[in-house]
Amino acid sequence: MAAAGADRRWVWIVVAAAAALPLLRSVVPDIISDYRLFLMSTMMIAAIAVLGLNLLTGFNGQISLGHGAFYAVGAYTAAILMDKLSLPYWTLLPIVAVVCFVVGFLFGLPALRLEGHYLALATFALALAVPQMLKYRWLEDLTGGVQGIVLLKPEAPFGLPLTEDQWLYYYCLIVTVLLFWAAWNLLRGRSGRAMMAIRDHSMAAGTMGIDTARYKTVTFGISAAYTGIAGALSASAIAFVAPDSFGFFLSISLLIGLVVGGVASLPGSIIGGIFTVLVQNSAQALSNFVKNDIGLPYDLSPYSVYGILLLVLMYVMPTGIAGGVVMAWRRLRR
């Protein structure tokens, strides 16, 4: 009990430090710039998306290569509601969560007949199909077709003296804390134990009276809802959605973030979100360093950077960064 209390205390210390970070902008404007705040907002959005995949794959054992599709559904649902119905951004998350939950639940029903790599291939097909469907000419009036939809970034409410990027940071921080808190409560309860029992041994869980079909489909829906909320936040943050932004590489990057951060670990989801954004934003800088400073005639794409880092981390930390940190801490304590 004392250890759990200490862990919660550290969590609230980290959240308080994150909340105070934008206030330091006037003190160190070069370090806490609007661009860096925007970058941290995208990290929190990626962490929510990785958490959604983690609930399905890490805690329930269902492999998905298509969570970029749910991310796209959430982003386009929010964009269409803001663009066509002029709904305020802060009313969208519950609607997006319900829509993506229904989509994930309905996809999870036929997926009950699939396991392992067959389920992975089905979700892979979903990731490939959704961006093409968004370009379909019959949906062009809603989705904007290839051109996408241009939006406005959210402004601070109640006349708060905050820039758009500062308010976006606080908005994403509030949503991230609430969603991780909800996931923590879900996993430590009866439903969470049932999810993990299905992951560890589905047949034994069914023998013990757990309704495996219901838990699998509901977990698919919850996972899709989390990832869809991340997509809705991304639409507000970037103020633009287009089909090509939700290609198959998005699904792969979420899966890599999950593996690198730590499967079946809530802190690992945060680490995975940070890793995903950092690699995407530093791939070009690393490519220039390799080509100009080291002298190798290569241009590193994000795919190459992902592959190299994944190989290194899987060799050094096979349980992910979160698992590696825990193991190192235990060794130091001994």
SSE string: HHHHHHEHHHHEHHHH
CA-based shape: globular
Rounded to an integer in angstroms, the radius of gyration calculated over CA atoms is 20 Å
Largest sheet: 2 strands, antiparallel
The main sheet orders its strands as 1-2
- Note the total helix count: 14
Number of strands: 2
Structure overview:
The chain is mainly α. It has a domain at 33-248. Helix content is 73%, strand content 1%. The chain has helices at 2-20, 34-58, 67-84, 92-111, 117-134, 140-143, 164-188, 190-200, 202-207, 212-238, 248-261, 266-294, 302-316, 320-333; strands at 149-150, 240-241. The chain has a two-stranded antiparallel sheet. Helix 2 (34-58) runs antiparallel to helix 10 and helix 3 (67-84) packs across helix 10. It is globular, with a radius of gyration of 20 Å. The chain crosses the membrane at residues 35-56, 63-81, 87-109, 116-134, 167-187, 218-240, 306-329. Keywords: Cell membrane, Membrane, Transmembrane, Transmembrane helix. Pfam families: BPD_transp_2.
Question: Could you list some keywords that capture this structure?
Answer:
334 residues; 2 strands; 73% helix; Branched-chain amino acid ABC transporter permease; two-stranded antiparallel sheet; transmembrane; mainly alpha; 1% strand; 14 helices
